[in-house]
Amino acid sequence: MAAGSAIQIPSRLPLLLTHEGVLLPGSTMRTSVDSPRNMQLVRSRLLKGTSLRSTIIGVIPNTSDPTSDCDDLPSLHRIGTAALAVQVVGSNWPKPHYTLLVTGLCRFQILQLLKEKPYPVAEVEQLDRLEQFTNQHKSEEQLGELSEQFYKYAVQLVEMLDMSVPAVAKLRRLLDNLPREALPDILTSIIRTSNQEKLQILDAVRLEERFKMTIPLLVRQIEGLKLLQKTRKPKQDDDKRVVTIRPNRRINHIPSTTEDEEEEADNDDVVMLEKKIRTSSMSEQALKVCLKEIKRLKKMPQSMPEYALTRNYLELMVELPWNKSTKDRLEIRAARILLDNDHYAMEKLKKRVLEYLAVRQLKNNLKGPILCFVGPPGVGKTSVGRSIAKTLGREFHRIALGGVCDQSDIRGHRRTYVGSMPGRIINGLKTVGVNNPVFLLDEVDKLGKSLQGDPAAALLEVLDPEQNHGFTDHYLNVAFDLSQVLFIATANTTATIPPALLDRMEIIQVPGYTQEEKIEIAHRHLIPKQLEQHGLTPQQIQIPQVTTLDIITRYTREAGVRSLDRKLGAICRAVAVKVAEGQHKETKPDRAEVDEEDCKEHVTEDAKTESISDTADLALPPEMPILIDFHALKDILGPPMYEMEVSERLSQPGVAIGLAWTPLGGEIMFVEASRMDGEGQLTLTGQLGDVMKESAHLAISWLRSNAKRYQLTNASGSFDLLDNTDIHLHFPAGAVTKDGPSAGVTIVTCLASLFSGRLVCSDVAMTGEITLRGLVLPVGGIKDKVLAAHRAGLKRIIIPRRNEKDLEEIAVNVRQDLTFVMASCLDEVLNAAFDGGFAVKPRVERLNSKL
Ligand code: ADP
């Protein structure tokens, strides 16, 4: 096909600009296309074209296509090769590009460039007219001689190769069958020639000149082969192999003869990579590994899957910040101001963080405990982590560990796997580009475990200052120094953090906020942030503190401020719509439109909610802020989600309010009991853990043993409380598993109410573990529990006496709102929980005497 006899190319050709190889007529070249004009040519001409003519393009050598569409076209090489695009392969790796397989047809010269965009098109003149050559050379004797000479050399060269290889035999046959005029181009592509030499051959339009130029190249190749044969003489077998190796590879691809160029181009990349490796500041060990890998890479054919893998690996190695770090600018006073500015309240946490930073400033190393912030969601753990990075002037990167159950997530996959990649730590370092960032390990309490190993164990190595300077990711397989990284962890609870990991960390509890703190946080931080995010100004919207309090008490029930933030966001969105509408109306005062809208509002909104739309209309002059009052709140957020239900639920005997601690903060919990005829069975519902069930049994046993003393009777008046009686205890929110001993006092109070028929005070909540002897033991999470009770509007809280010290942590204003009853035994609990106490009453004694 190469030397097709009468090729007629179109007079206008789209031009493919190449700079990596030179395509000669009769040979085939693979070329990568990724620059904008070339990509356009492939897309709109080759991929869309349907006729054979549309697959003919002009390949211009020695001219690179500018990387940007807007750049001017460089001056084009005058002579090019008209080519047939035989194959187009698209790929997205490492960036979108096409690989074209083109076969050269004949030379052409550019007469005039017709257009440059989206891809260049030129009017061209065909230069090779192969059928003429035959006539020509017949007429010119010299050319006949030249071609004869050339043919001889070509035959000599081919015969030096191993004829048993089919491709060599085929080439030998081709030499005889192809027209002589086509041979210079074809052989130049086959033998070892530089791009420059090929370019000269391409530019040699006259056939005579072309023969003259190629003969020395053939001779050079023949001499080279002879020399090789001589040096390899002793080893006969080897000799043959060596001689054939290179030419073979080329001959195999006849007429795809331009592998040299391909390799050259690719080698360029590899050489660049090698240069980068040598100049990078990686550790000695890493450098050794990389150099070994690059050596392998050079020998590897590009089509091997391992080629891409190795290349990826080397590129990652070059990119990693082996020695690149940011300079710490730590100034404790500035850090304090920044932390205070970014976060309201959380004094204990800020104090500890400042201490930590101060020690770092004095000691200048990081060998200390890893800080772990433990607290309910939305209390600002992540955001404090971010502030720490800011005060230090370090990069910040968050690694979410929730649900990670494969240790390869931390440590990476070995490179033997397909799709292997480095772990999150190394990936994070690559992302931030420095070796001393602040890494926030988010949700360490939610690490999973699976057959693929324990990620917590992998984290141990990362967090241990003694060993993390030599952290070895499986993918990298060389040590990377993590000792400069500042790790901070966050969790909702310490209960599920693996003990070994917990041991490496210093736990700082971040409790929930009080209502007052939430209001302050909302007005200092959340509202300004939301306004900015929604493009509003304080002149357009005003949220008074009472409204914030309303949102906090009636639309959210949480320890942190996340849902509050979301609600504020919803308000801002609604107002943004109104403001935008207002502006719209202002610019287009179309009365009909306004009227129609007004009507709609009247139909769909009730009388109260009109206030927001009215206010919104008033916002037309922008200096009038939209006031978010109770009605507006209802309009935007819907009816309140939480109402004070306490007194309503305590209207029957057998209900008491307990305080529970959950990873999401403290909560109030209604414990309900009822009795019915039966055989003395105790039924417990509400997904209780074993400890809680035991508390229930303890409570019943204590009440039974003290029934006489408190005059507690069953339905038939017997002191044996379980005689012919079944008891059912229920802990609402049945879908949530509950466990722990702290509900003991609540169960006792609830049952005491049931058996005495008296109501528990509706404003009292309690917590405490009980013993069989009626003592009240201390429990944890007092601060969260007290805040929950305060949120729910309760007034009195019964806590174990030994928890008295925990009250100091609670803000003064919350303490002032509440009355605390310290109890060391159940007598005290019951006395406080019932109006007028629970002591033995004279009335009861009278009853006794009757019996
Ligand atoms: P966590 O990590 O504890 O779940 P975040 O750090 O994501 O919580 O905090 C949620 C949002 O609440 C953030 O926008 C944060 O800025 C804000 N926030 C929480 N606590 C405070 C605080 N004390 N002062 C200012 N903003 C706060």
TrEMBL record:
Its main location: other. The gene is Lonp2. Residues 650-836 form the Lon proteolytic domain. GO terms for molecular function: ATP binding; ATP hydrolysis activity; ATP-dependent peptidase activity; serine-type endopeptidase activity. Its EC number is 3.4.21.-. It comes from Haliaeetus albicilla. The keyword Amino-acid biosynthesis does not apply. ATP binds at G375, P376, P377, G378, V379, G380, K381, T382. It is found in: Peroxisome matrix. CDD domains: RecA-like_Lon. GO terms for biological process: protein quality control for misfolded or incompletely synthesized proteins. Interacts with PEX5. Interacts with TYSND1. May interact with enzymes involved in beta-oxidation of fatty acids, including ACOX1/AOX. InterPro entries: AAA+_ATPase (IPR003593), ATPase_AAA_core (IPR003959), Lon_bac/euk-typ (IPR004815), Lon_lid (IPR054594), Lon_proteolytic (IPR008269), Lon_Prtase (IPR027065), Lon_prtase_N (IPR003111), Lon_prtase_N_sf (IPR046336). GO terms for cellular component: peroxisomal matrix. This is Lon protease homolog.
